[in-house]
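Teaching assistant's notes for section 4

Start the section by putting this record on the projector. Ask students to predict, before seeing the second block, whether DNA-binding response regulator will look compact or extended. Collect guesses on the board.
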Amino acid sequence: MDERIPAGAAIVVGMPRVLLIEDDQAVRDGLSMALGGRGHAVDAVATGEEGLARLASRPPDIVVLDLMLPGLDGFEVCRRIRAGGDLPIIMLTARNEDIDVVAGLAAGADDYVVKPARAQVLEARIRAVLRRSGQASPSVPVPAGIERHGDLGVDRAGLTVTKAGDPVALAPTELRLLLELTQVPGRVLSRQYLLESVWEHGYFGDSRVVDACVQRLRAKIEDDSSAPVYVQTVRGFGYRFGPL
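Reveal the predicted structure now:
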């Protein structure tokens, strides 16, 4: 039976609302119970169509999305959610295979967890993603004003980015990645460093989340994402911002 919560019940300090979209009832019930016991208000549905409808009627703080859904699959659900805004998304994938993981990240997911999903791992990822979404920049004072990098304007205090004067809509993880890279222009940052500083993953984090986020960021800030000027790959090492 799906776990439901009354409308407005999640308006409690420290109780983020999670929308869980998972067709396997045993997994759905198990994760609902486990996450609920860890302080999350869980709204669980079985299909992508139900999930999209629930987004409109009862907006969550984060979506946990199974990729292999009947009907409207998780990839399409992810794309539709991302097209409508920057709501954080963690995807659940049954197999740790490149084609699934990369496709899900390319569709706009912020992170992923491989099934069988251990509740403590999923909960840690949820809290990390919510921290990134609530505060895209480090909790230290930042100078006022706009940094200029070619056509890009980066306002660290206001957490906004413009290109040639026009606003650039970035998801929280994309923004945090850009802020990390522009903090040290010209310096090469390893994928592992970015995993730890942006995604808060430990040593065994998956660098594919970094690569996919870089591709999404390039698509928004580069004139030609196949010949990047801003976010450059240093083969075998990682990424650097510029030199322009």
